[in-house]
Design goal:
Elements lengths: L1 H25 L8 H13 L3 H14 L4 H13 L3 H14 L4 H13 L3 H15 L4 H14 L13
Amino acid sequence: MRLALRTMISAFAIVFIAGAAQAMDSGSTSFGPTTDEIYKKAQKSVDMQRYREALADLQKVIKDKPKHADALNLMGYSHRKLAEYDLAVRFYNRALEADPKHRGANEYLGEAYLELNNLPEAEMRLAKLNELCGTDCKEYKALAQAVEQYKAGKRPPQSSRASW
């Protein structure tokens, strides 16, 4: 009887440990939200203009996935909306290091440069977008419009959407 009980306990322990290890490897556990769920929550916070809340969630995502280009881009966007331009530029550049073809990061970095009165850098981002997706993609069109407005002496538009 004791042998059967020990065997059952050992079997249960092996199954439990294996299940826990598999959950940890997949990034999903029953102990809390997954990285993807936290990222989606951050996206919603940005949509509601709750940038500080988004930053807290995005830090968790980046801690788990340091090269998550979309999260890095959204970090830059949130910092830019909070007028924290040094941090915004830093995170946009990290997004581009993780994914040099990230159209959203190229667009938003260009917009940040306009807000910093750095037209040459903004135009470089526009040229990069032209190289990546031509003049018909939404990111190119948005940055081209912002550059046009900047040149006309108008303040760069505050983007109401986030490119992920």
